[in-house]
Structure formats: C-alpha cells, structure tokens
Amino acid sequence: MTGATIARLRRHIDYLEVSACLVSIFCKNAAETRERTAMIVEYIRYQLKQHTPEELVAAYRKAQESLKAAPECHGVELSHCVEDPSSLTLRILWTSTEDHLRGFRKGAHFPPFLAAIRPFVSEIAEMQHYAVTDVDWQR
C-alpha cells in the first residue's frame, strides 16, 4: 500500500468517525426532544382572596419536596403575575397525565404534598394538563 493510499484511508476513517459522532449527537438530541415533548405540563392558576402570595410561596417551598421525591415529576415552577400579585401560576412537569393522576396522586408523596397546599385549594382558578408542542425555545 502506498503512502497516498494510507493517507486517503485515514481521511475516510476520520470522516466516518466524525459522521458516526454527528449521527450519535443527532439521535441523542432527537431522543431528548421526543422525551421533552412527551412530557405533560400541569398548570394551576391561583387567584388569592384569602391568603397572601407569600403564604402560597411558603407552602410550595414545603410541597416541592414531595414533588422532587416523586419519580413522576420532572420539575416545578411557581410564578406570580406582575400586574396582579394575587394571581400566581404553578407549572409542574409530569412524565404523563396518567403518571400524575394514578402514580403520584395514589402514591406516598401525595399526602404530604396535599397537606402543604390544602389551605389554598379553594383559591384555584384553573387546573389543567397541557401537551407540549415543538415550539419550545429558551436562551
């Protein structure tokens, strides 16, 4: 084999290694995208009339420990409305609606979660599950 042939083979091997690496990255990204879009987002909107926003935030600081411990839950975020501080929205990422309703709600982590937020249940204005679309971007 000549030196030129060996060099050409090395370039092809390098090309194949880079191609395999790119395919691996693409497949991993595609799998992560499918996993992320398969998640269900539960939105719970509170319109506080009996409690302060600080009380709700404190309750969810405690309740989030149950969510963190639950394998069905992949994240939680509580936001308050800038224009109306008595309006707060909780966003919870679940593996699926079924996992939330039949797994978490019937599991060991739900009772302490509910105990922490029970005083606020009557102030829920909306509680729904949403499927994530492919329109999802953050900087």
Give a quick rundown of the structure.
The chain has 139 residues and is of the alpha+beta class. The chain contains 4 helices and 4 strands. Strand 2 and strand 3 form a beta hairpin.
What does this structure look like?
- The structure is a single chain.
- The protein has 139 residues and is α+β, with helices and mostly antiparallel strands.
- Helices cover 50% and strands 23% of the residues.
- It is built from four helices and four strands; from the N terminus they run H-E-H-E-E-H-H-E.
- A four-stranded antiparallel sheet has the order 2-3-1-4.
- Helix 2 runs antiparallel to helix 4.
- The chain is elongated, with a radius of gyration of 23 Å.
Supply database-style keywords.
4 strands
Q: Detail the poorly predicted runs.
A: 33-37
Strand order of the largest sheet: 2-3-1-4
Total number of beta strands: 4
Give the SSE string: HEHEEHHE
SS class: alpha+beta
Shape: elongated
What's the tally of helices? 4
CA radius of gyration: 23 Å
Mean pLDDT: 85
β-strand amount = 15-25%
**How many angstroms does the end-to-end distance come to?**
51 Å
Proportion in helices: 40-55%
Question: Biggest sheet: strands, sense, closure?
Answer: 4 strands, antiparallel
